[in-house]
Amino acid sequence: MGDFSAISIAKRGRLYHLRRRVPRRYRSIEPRETVWISLHTDSETVARSKADRAWSQMIEAWEARLAGNSADAEARYEAARDLARARGFRYLDAGAVAKLPIEEVVERVEAIPAPANQPDAIEAAALLGTVPEPRITVTKALELYWTLAKEKTLGKSEDQLRRWEAPRKKAVKNFVAVVGNKEIANITRDDMLDFRQHWLDRIEAGEVTANSANKDLIHLGDVLKTVNTMKRLGLSLPLGELSFKEGEKQTRPPFSEDWIRTRLLAPGALDGLNWQARALLLGMINTGYRPFEGAALTADTIRLDCDVPHISIEAEGRQLKSHYARRVIPLTGVSLEAIKQFPEGFPRYRDRATLSAVVNKFLRANGLLETPRHSMYSLRHGFEDRMLAAGIDDRIRRDLFGHRLDRERYGKGASLEHVATLVARIAF
């Protein structure tokens, strides 16, 4: 029995035991130099048949204990589950352990190694369920997804793998930007509807197609559902009925003049909405710009120090919806006063497609949507309706909105001064 590199069994009392030296890898978590592992039999033949499996289980338990020293909550939790299984138990949290019959609790306690009468803390945590279940956020779910969905990447080239990963990373990034990096267990139906609303606003603004929005929803759902299933979380994820019909573009109803005047512009109505989002909302009332157009404004495109204060919708590092979208819009009324507060633009939203989601969530939470189908984008439609009711020429309306004219455009159109006079008549 001098060679501890091979399987060695010997009787201790009535039963056979496996005796082996502890590998160097596990010295930090195993104080014994040599271990004796009971094979629970008095038959040498049976003992030899069980020895390999017993040693494998010992190695598995040591590996789990090593992982249990990790600073990563996910790794510690997985290690506790593995260690409990290696000891012949199912991992249960402390609350569930406390509800077990007393004899089963005693069995778990007695299974905890206690060299020098000091119970091993890692083993105790695994068998008594005191390792907290990790909080899996949306970004953590994506990290876990790459391993859990490994079979989907088999055989892919480096370029194929990059193209497979990119839309999933994009979907998670978009969700976090709109809703936040929530724990997936705490994602609500309202969160998913806010995310859907974000995409609907972008579809309506012509920034993306319904197909692009659906792909984002599908990839996000794939990540969350895979983690939920493979990690056996048992969550009921609110992912149903979110997709858009291909080619369908829902038009938002306009805010009525009365609603804008008495509700949106009521004293204190927008308190609680951050200042930049508030200014962009007010700026939209008398300009009808698309939310992303307002968010993209800069010191160069906000022109206050001139005879007719105005904004200029330009490409400036981003692609416009069409060449008709390039235009100037006079600033009047509450819109002028709001934009004056931010002459340099709106850096909080300039490179992030989150403005509509933030505003819509605030309006919904504060009862400021005229109907459930209204959204921030309804301010654009409301501005158009007011111009139409005031009899403003179709060419001027289309020029202000960045729409195509269904006939040839002759001349330069109305002067900025003339357009400003017309808009001032309908402005709040």
TrEMBL record:
InterPro entries: CB, DNA_brk_join_enz, DUF6538, Integrase-like_cat_sf, Integrase_catalytic. GO terms for molecular function: DNA binding. It holds the Pfam family DUF6538. One of its GO terms (biological process) is DNA recombination. Residues 250-424 form the Tyr recombinase domain. The keyword Lipoprotein does not apply. The keyword Nucleus does not apply. Residues 136-228 form the Core-binding (CB) domain. Keywords: DNA integration, DNA recombination, DNA-binding. This is Phage integrase family protein. It comes from Roseivivax lentus.
